Sequence to fold (361 residues):
Amino acid sequence: MTYQLNEKIKGIKPYEVPKGRFTVRMDANESFLSVPQAIKKDIISMTRKVAFNRYPDTTAQKCRKAFAGYYGIDPDLVTAGNGSDELITLILNGFFERGDKLLLTEPDFSMYAFNAHIAELQTVVYQKGEDYRADPAEMIDLARREGCRGLIFSNPCNPTSQGIRKGPLRTLLRELPEVLIILDEAYMDFWNQSLINEAAEYDNLILLRTASKALGGAAIRLGFAVGCKKLTNVLQALKSPYNVSSTTQAAGEAIFKHPDLLKEGLMDILAGRGFLAGALAKLEADWKATPYAFHLIPEPKTNFVVLCFADKSKHKEIYDALKKKKILVRCFPDFLRVTVGSTEENQAFLSELTAIKNGGE
Ligand SMILES: *Cc1c(COP(=O)(O)O)cnc(C)c1O
Fold:
């Protein structure tokens, strides 16, 4: 007799991250800006004060308070996590029972389906429509028809760059009172349709945020869940007691105490997005009659843009050719996802893309 892995983990593979050195990283939706010097100084001085022989504060009180202060919400309705990834795992494993139906949308963040699988949930998939737009009315219908117990999606969405506005979201929350809705706002700093200020009004909503994208803190692994008192109490009890390290708590506290610097960085990213999307819209028009015809999903609400080539084999071809030039983007079967970079990075990407097209024609 030998030890047998159970069915659900037999085939699983580690999350794949491309290996090698790249001069331009436009693949993971990180901020192209490092944390500003003034914030770094604070992180270092606060890290010095960490009691390294002691366990962290279980409730990450100061860090939560700084986060809540930045967004103008009640810190008592916030739970800190080791990245929002941890919170997603926690929620899908804790709030549902084996076999419960969870509604996912497609395309969306791949970790939802992965964690649903590990939590032994059944998944029901809502396919998005033209330009990857989601219709909340159709989502409500599907959730009701299938008797879903939960719904998780990113808004604005990774990887489509599109989003659902506040009005229809409020309807969704009210129309599905028995469904736990997990609203992942990882990219909401780049758009203005957040429900963070009203999250506590709903007893079926957990809203997720992260320090990893707009705030430039992917390295520290810090995410947050916002919800009403009842759901927050459960989350606090479900999480492992010392889930967020003292160094991360200190860094998080330092980051959120500099709202002006955070907003400056955000404006830089939004300006970069404007430049990249503008340049790509022009290429879209110019390349219409070529084998490299593509469609830019319009009005991105995120720090990345999405290119759908009419000839789907171009996605891998361009991805590989860019990779050879040490430029990394993210390749999906139906599109390329390109994170906004610095001015130089955006230009390097655009000129390589043009060179690939000219060479391939
Ligand atoms: C990047 C990302 C996350 C992960 O955030 P962490 O806080 O770094 O774990 C969560 N949700 C979506 C949709 C993301 O794109």
In short: The longest strand covers residues 101-106. The chain has a mean pLDDT of 97. Residues 17 and 28 are 9 Å apart (CA to CA). Residues 29, 83-85, 109, 154, 158, 184, 186, 210, 212-213, 218, 223 surround pyridoxal-5'-phosphate (CB under 6 Å).
